[in-house]
Amino acid sequence: AESASEEPPAVGMRWRRQFVRTLVRRDDGVVVLPDLHAIFAAHLGIGELGRTGEVA
Predict the structure, then answer these.
(1) Partner of 8 for a Cys bridge, out of 20, 21, 27, 45, CB 3.0 to 4.6 A?
(2) Rg of the chain over CA atoms, in angstroms?
(3) Residue 54 belongs to some domain of the structure
(4) Given a cut of 80, is residue 46 above it in pLDDT?
């Protein structure tokens, strides 16, 4: 099965764009890969953290 990843579109998605890491198109549909770091940072109210856990 051939697949290609791409940036999420600016409009037309139910997910907030900052919570989507990438989209992967497959022969049988589209897979949304979430940005778990951004989701949990927003949920926990810890703001923007760098990928190493340090405040940016």
Answers:
(1) 20
(2) 13
(3) no
(4) no
